[in-house]
Amino acid sequence: MFIPLDSDGHLINLADAEKVGPQWRPLIESLVDECRLRYQDLASVYIRGSVATGTAVWGRSDIDLIAVTHQEHAFDRVWMQEAADRTRSRHSTVVDIDLAITSATTILTDRKSGFYIKTQSALVYGEDFAPRIAPYPIDAEAFSHLFNLELDLKTVCGAVDGATETFARTLILRLVKRVLRAGLELVAERQQEYTRDPDMCCDLFGKYYPEKAAAARNILALMSELADPDDALESIESLIDWIAIERSRLYPLELPKIAFIDDLGV
Length: 266
Fold this sequence. Notes:
The protein has a four-stranded mixed sheet. By secondary structure, it is α+β, with helices and mostly antiparallel strands. It has helices spanning 25-38, 50-53, 77-90, 104-109, 111-120, 149-160, 165-191, 198-208, 213-221, 229-250; strands at residues 42-48, 63-69, 97-103, 121-126. The protein is built from ten helices and four strands; from the N terminus they run αβαβαβααβααααα.
């Protein structure tokens, strides 16, 4: 689904806590409790993605949670994994949980960090900072992955070496989504349409770059059939190299924008 625009051309946030399905609520409540115990200065917790828009499919979708604290905290990946594991054990589920931590100062002053709160998240606990964040048109400020692809590829390639097969597949699939969404970001400003759906990203990218449509479709196919991680990374790297060249032509002054959302879990 494309995220609609208002009359001024700004992205409209379709996320709403009321849209969260009942099967997801106990897990979200457990994760909020985990965050409250870990961070005494917890300000807010947001749910984002398909769960927040009511389009999640149990057994396929994951939970994306953003905890916002008043103070800056060192990144604690060990605790994040333990909190996710405890929540899954408590509710006897294997659902994938993506837990991110950031600060109020960061989301209010860094446009890339604020983007997810303003355009794709629903408040489930605490103070809502979204009204204090300026709206987003479809331009470079709204792009999450286009300027970081080379860093993402380097991170994944380094982490896959020696990783378990399951974790290697997880990392590659995360990279696949980022590449497809970067392809959408490459054309989104011209098209004035924005989505994070991988299929729709692929379609819109192919509309502007038909000579690369097959390559993008091959990357999309990895989401359902990933046999050889080395072959997959080779195909991904080839498309990333091409996207990076085209990105430099379209956005020559833009630099990598690192935010809390860029963590790949390694």
